[in-house]
Amino acid sequence: MAVNKVLIVGGGVTGSVAAIGLAQRGVDVCLIEQRDVWMGAGHGITVHGNALRAFAEIGVADRIIATGVPFDRIRVHQAGGPLLADVPTPQTGGPFLPATLGTLRSDLQNVLVEEIGNLGIDVRLGCTVKELHDAGDRVTAALSDGTTAEYDLVVGADGIHSDTRRMLGFDERPAPSGMGIWRFVTERLEHMDSSAVFYGGPWYKAGYAPISDTQCYAYVLIDPVIKDADRRDNTVLTGLLDGYHGDFDHLRKSIDESTFSNYQPIEWLLIDRPWSRGRVILVGDAAHACPPLIAQGAAMCAEDAVILADFATREGDLDQLLGEFWRRRIHRVRTVVENSLQMVDWELHPDQPGSDAAGLMARSLALMTEPA
């Protein structure tokens, strides 16, 4: 194999899937995560079939599916509530996996953490990289826990605000999309059993997806103008939802001070050149991050991770293998980022001639049915 010992920086979806995929191939893996408590964010996530296909590659798809609610359509509503269209979603992971899954990020992460434990992977929480030295045939990493060790490969999977990216000297930085998103988790009604999106209200759009028999996660896309002091104030959130009705009348009334909610401005990133420098490589959101309008962020991260595990454990020159990995991935992730940004632009400027959000979404998901 090209590598036998790997350090993974970051314990989110990308880093966790990479750790599992490499360990299953016999690699000695050390995974470090800067947080002391290791779990995903508490809000929901829409997982398309191609992400589930990547999870199936490491044997955890069934457990992840069991955490949430599979569905195969998106219902499009006017902001006032009337149904405009009921649109099937393609099975981007193939005929034997759900088209889409709604679940909690924390539940998905818990499945990955469990599998990492089953494999006996060395995990260090509250730990970061202090220094990297690439000697050509190995990388020496000095960690914040005071240890220093040599690795065949270091994988920077530390997210859109990656310190690894900065340490490698990449000058690409996250850029604002012009939108923010406020997500929340609450009780749903029985008929709210698939994804739904509401257009024509006071903001760009609002929507929801089921995550259990009784709960859903919901969101509203807004201008990125929420003050820091208001980001935990659910009365501000309910005010933002005043112009949405139908199912949102129930959702709005269900919000109280105990409702979990999360606001953040939406950023994006694309490194459109090779992601590796010597024996250190960036993957997932550290190399490419897209606005959530096509719901492909987690899928791109999981695909990166399983494919990197494959390439890194082949026989051959590691530098060449990392280059082949990048060439395999760049067209697909570039398309997702660019199409997501086009969707944002059409949301921000809806009167543009030629805007076709539904068509672009359909074409993007059709591309995802092809092998990653």
From TrEMBL:
The GO molecular function terms of this record are: FAD binding; monooxygenase activity
Please state every residue range assigned to the domain named FAD-binding. 5-309
Q: InterPro entries, from UniProt? A: FAD-bd, FAD-dep_Monooxygenase_BioMet, FAD/NAD-bd_sf
Taxonomically, which superkingdom? Bacteria
Q: Which Pfam families match?
A: FAD_binding_3 (PF01494)
SUPFAM superfamilies for this protein = FAD/NAD(P)-binding domain
For this UniProt record, give its keywords in alphabetical order, as a comma-separated list.
Answer: Monooxygenase, Oxidoreductase
Q: What is this protein called?
A: FAD-binding domain-containing protein
